[in-house]
Design a protein that fits this description.
With 257 residues, this protein is of the alpha/beta class. Helix content is 39%, strand content 20%. The chain has two domains: 2-70 and 146-256, P-loop containing nucleotide triphosphate hydrolases (Rossmann fold); 82-145, no CATH class. Helix 6 (188-194) runs antiparallel to helix 7. Bound molecules: adenosine-5'-triphosphate (ATP). InterPro entries: AAA+_ATPase, ABC_transporter-like_ATP-bd, ABC_transporter-like_CS, ABC_transporter_ATP-bind, P-loop_NTPase.
């Protein structure tokens, strides 16, 4: 994406200008102060909302208006369909895309197995824990075999222990699928643990003020958090973000006061 901005109405300058080029197959996370435009960035990247200025391309083609083929999106809120079983939730996108028969069945079976949902394939979302429901949503995106996966705070509603386990699962999926992953998160340790690169955004209007390269091996797990280098990465992120968060809080106070 180049020179991307998003202004809501005529006054709320939410984002940019932002330039970002994702490397094929990398795990890139975005952190930034609350309200800096992270979700706005993801929405315009996904084609769900149009930028006010600038261009976004995916595999050489301009993105506008719709989510391009090959891009999958996972949101924070539980987006599973309560009236469909786990199996049918996961197969929903495939059905809509015209996949039928053995190919669709195989992909759904494989996803259920991979996500450890075998005992729950015929259960309904209200019979599952929050973590399992989010696993269903991730599986539903991944059966489409996206080459780019965009995740907006997918573990935001989960407890810390489940977040760590889901992080490891996401790393495993990323490794096996070869997809490029872009994750938005509030949690600096989550970004530090999972990513090849982390983009730190300024307070609104959000721009990248630093891109941190972690240098982790591809076969990492959450155990990386025990390494001394992990502490260095989180400290660096926090030092950059602290100042920006203070600015964001001060401007919110001005709006409220
Ligand atoms: N549809 C909209 N109309 C007007 N303003 C909007 C709209 N969507 C977002 N905004 C504003 O744009 C700014 C950025 O919002 P956004 O949700 O992208 O931030 P964020 O970084 O994802 O926030 P958080 O970390 O709290 O989830 C905020 O000031 C928000 O109020």
């Amino acid at each position: 994406m180049t020179g991307v901005t998003r202004i809501f109405g005529s006054t709320v300058h939410a984002l940019g200008p932002v330039d970002l080029e994702l490397r094929r197959g990398e795990f890139f996370s975005i952190v930034g102060p609350s309200g800096c435009g992270k979700s706005t960035l993801l929405d315009v990247l996904a084609g769900l909302s149009s930028p006010t200025d600038g261009t976004i391309t995916f595999e050489g083609k301009r993105v506008r208006g719709t989510v391009p083929d090959g891009v999958g999106v996972v949101f924070q809120e539980d987006a599973s369909f309560p009236w469909l079983s786990v199996r049918d939730n996961i197969g929903f996108g495939l059905l809509r895309a015209g996949f039928r028969g053995a190919e669709a069945d195989d992909r759904v079976r494989h996803a259920i197995d991979f996500m450890g949902l075998n005992d729950f394939a015929d259960a309904y979302p209200n019979q599952l824990s929050g973590g399992m429901r989010q696993r269903v949503c991730i599986a539903r995106t991944l059966v489409m075999r996206p080459r780019l996966v965009l995740l907006d705070e997918p573990f935001g509603a989960l407890d810390q222990q489940t977040r760590l386990l889901m992080g490891d699962e996401l790393l495993r999926l990323w490794r096996v699928s070869g997809a490029t992953v872009l994750l938005i998160t509030h949690a600096l340790d989550e970004a530090a643990m999972l990513s090849d690169r982390i983009g730190v955004m300024s307070s609104r209007p959000g721009r990248f003020i630093e891109i941190v390269e972690t240098g982790w091996p591809r076969d990492r797990t959450s155990a990386i958090a025990a390494e001394p280098a992990f502490g260095e990465v989180t400290t660096r992120l926090w030092n950059t973000l602290r100042e920006e968060s203070l600015k964001a809080m001060a401007s919110q106070r001005r709006v409220i006061g």
